[in-house]
Amino acid sequence: MELRNYWKPLRRRWWLVVAPVIVVVIYVAVTYTPPAPLYQVVVRYAAGTTPAATSEDYDRYYPWLTSEYVANGLADVALTGAFAQSVADLLHAGGKDVPAAAVQQALVSDNAQSVLVIYLTWPDPVEAVVVAEAISIELTTNAAAYFPQLEGIEPAVRPLDEPVPVPVAAGLRAQLTGPAVKIALALVVGVALALLWHYLDPTVNEAAELEELGLPVLGAIPRG
Questions:
Q1: For residues 101 and 88, what is the distance between their CA atoms, to the nearest angstrom?
Q2: Rounded Cα–Cα distance for residues 218 and 182 (Å)
Q3: Structurally, what CATH architecture does the domain formed by 38-169 represent?
Q4: What whole-number distance in Å separates Cα of residue 92 and Cα of residue 80?
Q5: Which residues pair with 47 in a beta bridge?
Q6: pLDDT in 10s for each residue of the chain, 224 residues
Q7: Do 68 and 114 touch, CB atoms closer than 8 A?
Q8: DSSP string of 94-120, one letter each residue
Q9: What whole-number distance in Å separates Cα of residue 100 and Cα of residue 168?
Q10: Using only C-alpha atoms, what is the Rg of the chain?
Q11: How far apart, in Å, are the Cα atoms of 172 and each of 48, 169, 216?
């Protein structure tokens, strides 16, 4: 079917296409609230161990290699439920009740050689700093709880940044549920309704439709 064959029923029943859009526009105008702001805190940590040899200058390659393993391992640990629960327990001890699941969902980690990077995304800037500080305490004082070989090395992890919350743009999910998408979906529904009506409507609107059925058209009364 040519595109113009789709355009004809849409033009004929334009009101059916427009009606859902008008309803959604009114609904959005009444109920729309901007997405809640989000803040991100990025803190980098130096991770490493002291040389195990008798001299700190002996075979320094292995301590540097170990520091990379520590940073990489702690980057994975920071995403676990056990780590999130420990952070939640620290917050609870400080009078702040934050679910461990919320902490785990808000964390993203990475590492660049011997540097561990923690990304925390949180809706409240003041609370984001509190959560970030609890994460730092857990990383710098309790790393041996996750890796026993770090026992006695204090601190194996050192923060390199102060937790500073920075506003970030709304996520993809918030954008997809925005007004523009709702209106676009309403338009799609309107087009679908118009085409469905045209498909189910037995009315003959053009002489070509009769000719397709094999019925000759002897004359037509012009619209007027």
A1: 9
A2: 48
A3: 2-Layer Sandwich (3.30)
A4: 19
A5: 157
A6: 466 667 777 888 888 889 999 999 999 888 887 777 899 999 999 988 776 555 555 567 777 888 888 899 999 999 999 999 999 999 999 999 999 999 999 999 999 888 999 999 999 999 999 999 999 999 999 988 898 888 877 668 899 999 999 998 776 666 666 788 888 999 999 999 988 887 777 776 677 766 666 777 767 777 76
A7: yes
A8: TT----HHHHHHHEEEEEETTEEEEEE
A9: 23
A10: 32
A11: 37, 9, 57
Please give the distance of CA 158 from its chain centroid, rounded to a whole number. Answer: 29
**Which residue bears the tokens 């400080």?**
94
Query: Which tokens go with 82?
Result: 């056990």
Domain residue spans of the chain:
3-34+174-212, 38-169
Structure tokens at 145: 């709880």
SS3 36: coil
The residue with tokens 């008798």 is 54
Please say whether the beta carbons of 122 and 41 come within 8 A.
Answer: yes
Provide the residue type at 6 as one letter.
Answer: Y
